[in-house]
């Protein structure tokens, strides 16, 4: 986790968690009773540039009064495919570009950071959006940020640490998904895919499990995020994989009765911070 700070040490009773991608944003506000009193999501309908995304964020700050509260802590979660995982034993903070350059195109002025997942001996190396970081610094002064895959992997590995079976998680977004494979409590694969059609989703899913030699009759596929039983991606996967289920957020999370109900697998990363 990376933290930005200034000299403002004032503490208040609200906590803000906001997730940002180039396709949309979501946020939740938590009160002093650890109850979620605001939960909002905006889908942009297409992938924007970081500059256009910043304009959307500024508009959200003018739209939602819950983003104007005084916060004791603010956490920003970046959701993109500009990341990779490195075993902690092999990690060197002087080699951040080396870890990423084989997977993505790196620009000279890219700001590369990392999250340490100490409990699992992993490091997530990634590129956040520096223009959006600057905006949040101006808005809040002090905040922390991390990559969504860090939250996802940390939560799922903790959940699966005593499971001896293979488990495949598909964390769905509007136009992409994160595929996480865990076997015997260990991370086997963590990757993100952009898909234009439901068939693209199925191809990436089935190709991955085939390469890992997982039997569709045996492993369990668990959906998280923006999906339901009525979704075409679910229907397609159900034709080829025997065991399919939906994941569950932390049962200790309290959501205000004044908010619209959500399914237990929705907003999984955003709500895994509490």
Report on this structure.
The protein has 274 residues and is of the alpha/beta class. It folds into two domains: 2-85 and 91-154 and 250-271, 2-Layer Sandwich (Nucleotidyltransferase, domain 5), CATH 3.30.420; 156-246, 2-Layer Sandwich (Nucleotidyltransferase, domain 5). Helix content is 25%, strand content 33%. A hairpin with a 3-residue loop joins strand 10 and strand 11 (176-183). It is globular and about 50 Å long. Mean pLDDT is 91; it is low at 1-11.
What's the helix and strand layout?
Elements: E1 2-4, E2 14-20, E3 24-30, E4 35-43, H1 50-63, E5 71-78, E6 83-87, H2 96-100, E7 113-117, E8 122-126, H3 130-140, E9 143-147, H4 148-159, E10 166-172, E11 176-183, E12 186-194, H5 198-211, E13 220-225, H6 232-240, E14 243-246, E15 254-255, H7 268-271
Parallel strand pairs: 2-5, 4-15, 5-9, 10-13, 13-14
Antiparallel strand pairs: 1-9, 2-3, 3-4, 6-8, 7-8, 10-11, 11-12
Instruction: Quote the distance from N terminus to C terminus.
Output: 16 Å
Helix proportion: 25-40%
> Low-confidence stretches at least 5 residues in length (pLDDT < 50)?
1-11
CATH superfamily of the largest domain: Protein of unknown function DUF3822, N-terminal domain
Instruction: Give the strand order of the largest sheet, numbering strands 1, 2, ... along the chain.
Output: 1-9-5-2-3-4-15
CATH topology of the largest domain: Nucleotidyltransferase, domain 5
The ordered H/E elements are EEEEHEEHEEHEHEEEHEHEEH
How does the major sheet shape up? 7 strands, mixed
The number of distinct structural domains comes to: 2
Instruction: Please give the CATH architecture of the largest domain.
Output: 2-Layer Sandwich
Structural class of the secondary structure composition?
alpha/beta
Global geometry: globular
- The overall pLDDT average reads 91
Q: Helix count, per DSSP? A: 7
């Amino acid at each position: 986790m990376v933290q930005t700070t200034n000299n403002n040490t004032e503490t208040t009773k609200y906590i803000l968690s906001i997730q940002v991608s180039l396709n949309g944003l979501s946020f939740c506000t938590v009160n002093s009773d650890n109850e979620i009193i605001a939960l909002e999501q905006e889908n942009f309908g297409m992938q924007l540039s970081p500059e256009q995304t910043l304009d959307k964020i500024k508009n959200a700050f003018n739209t939602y009064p819950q983003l104007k509260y005084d916060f004791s802590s603010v956490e920003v979660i970046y959701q993109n495919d500009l990341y990779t995982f490195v075993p902690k034993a092999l990690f060197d903070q002087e080699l951040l570009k080396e870890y990423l350059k084989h997977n993505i195109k790196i620009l000279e002025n890219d700001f590369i950071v990392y999250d340490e997942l100490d409990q699992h001996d992993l490091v997530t190396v990634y590129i956040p959006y520096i223009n959006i970081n600057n905006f949040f610094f101006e808005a809040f002064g002090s905040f922390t940020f991390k990559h969504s895959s860090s939250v996802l992997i940390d939560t799922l590995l903790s959940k699966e640490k005593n499971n001896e079976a293979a488990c495949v998680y598909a964390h769905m977004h509007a136009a992409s998904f994160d595929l996480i494979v865990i076997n015997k409590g260990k991370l086997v694969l963590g990757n993100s895919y952009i898909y234009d059609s439901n068939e693209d989703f199925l191809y990436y899913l089935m190709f991955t499990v085939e390469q890992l030699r997982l039997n569709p009759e045996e492993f369990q596929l668990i959906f998280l995020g923006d999906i339901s039983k009525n979704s075409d991606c679910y229907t397609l996967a159900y034709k080829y994989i025997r065991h399919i289920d939906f994941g569950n957020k932390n049962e200790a999370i309290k959501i205000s009765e004044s908010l619209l109900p959500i399914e237990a697998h929705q907003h999984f990363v955003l709500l895994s911070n509490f």
